[in-house]
Amino acid sequence: MILYEGRPEVSSGRQEKEMKVYDLLDSLGITYQRTDHKAVATIEDCLEVDRILEVRICKNLFLCNRQKTAYYLLLIPGDKTLKTKELSKRIPTSRLSFASGEDMERYLNVSPGSATVMGLLFDPDHKVQLLIDEEVLKEEYFGCHPCVNTSSIRFRTEDMLQKVLKAVDHDYITVSLSDGGEEK
Questions:
Q1: What is the pLDDT of residue 40?
Q2: Fewest CB atoms less than 10 Å from the CB: which of 104, 135, 142, 169?
Q3: How does DSSP assign 17-37, residue by residue?
Q4: What's the domain count of the chain?
């Protein structure tokens, strides 16, 4: 894997949604690095990508309430175990579970394994609430997929919070989730 500065030189073979992410970052004047790789869908698959990008692994989990009337994108460190009961109490909402792949496609324009904060670009109706674990906010750099899981990008966390989220008209809720352990 190679670390590149900015967008791919050639857009052929790239999905339109990926190119829209680069267009957004470029229009906001955000400096970013990119690496291309085989499809990654698990934290274990991402270890080498994160080593190349020099970022801490971050899970992007797409969740919904029991009634499927509220959707959430949760960003947590890769080494944390999600306890949905704990998160449900913190936001507060009824029992949380993982949302379907169809809902992920519908609301974020991404497929399972490609969940990313950049998918909020495709949520103009604000159906998805962004939740960010406080540990993610402490990192200088943030890594994510550009809406496909065959590339990954890195840019300043501050740029994500102050520029990207503002541009896609989304806010976030900071959550403090406990470390590890089994779900109860």
A1: 83
A2: 169
A3: HHHHHHHHHHHTT---EEEE-
A4: 1
The residue type at 70? A
CB 155 within 8 A of CB 28: no
Could you tell me if residue 182 is inside a domain?
A: no
Which residue intervals of the chain are DSSP H helices?
16-27, 43-53, 84-90, 101-108, 134-137, 157-159, 165-167
Between the CA of residue 153 and those of 144, 176, 180, what are the distances in Å?
A: 6, 25, 26
Q: Model confidence over 79-131: pLDDT tens digits?
A: 898 988 899 988 988 789 999 999 999 999 999 989 999 999 999 999 999 99
Domain span at residue 21 reads 4-175
Q: Do the Cβ atoms of 155 and 118 come closer than 8 Å?
A: no
CATH for 44: 3.90.960.10
Encode pLDDT of 46-83 as tens digits.
Answer: 888 888 999 988 899 999 998 999 999 999 998 898 98
Rounded to an integer, what distance in angstroms lies between the CA atom of residue 89 and that of residue 28?
Answer: 36
Give the Cα separation of 23 and 88 in Å (integer): 35
